[in-house]
Amino acid sequence: MFVTTTAREPIKNDRELEFAVFCIENVAEALGKPSDAVYRALTGPGDILNQYIVPSYDVLHTQGREYIVNDIREVMNERGFAYDGLAWWRSCCCRVGFDAFAQGG
């Protein structure tokens, strides 16, 4: 999907807020990571929450849970996110495969 924007699009209503929480909790569950850590990753550098998830709400919320989770994981992977057990980090120079990490690698 990857309809990203450089402009920050804040959450405008309760539906978008509920969807953002749904995304955070389900990505965290799929990865076996704490939801507060996933929230920090999605709102940190690159701001996937406000530059991808919220702007794509109209399309994403019509999809199933598995599609949404996989789509967000793919965005995170393309942007080089990794988790060191304590915090998320992103490296622009050294892209660490997010999916490899999520699978224990």
What would you note in describing this structure?
With 105 residues, the chain is mostly helical. It has one domain (14-102). The chain is 53% helix and 6% strand. It has 6 helices and 2 strands. It has helices at 14-31, 35-43, 48-53, 57-60, 65-78, 98-102, and strands at residues 81-83, 88-90. It has a two-stranded antiparallel sheet with strand order 1-2. The protein is globular, with a radius of gyration of 13 Å. The relative contact order is 0.17. Residues 1-5 and 91-101 have low confidence and may be disordered.
Structure, briefly:
The chain is mainly α and 105 residues long.
Total strands: the figure is 2
Number of domains as seen in the coordinates: 1
Broad shape: globular
Radius of gyration: 13 Å
What composes the largest sheet? 2 strands, antiparallel
Task: Determine the number of helices (DSSP H or I, runs of at least 4 residues).
Answer: 6
Give the class from helix and strand content and strand pairing. Answer: mainly alpha
Estimate percent helicity.
40-55%
Terminal CA distance: 26 Å
Biggest β-sheet: strands ordered side by side in the sheet: 1-2
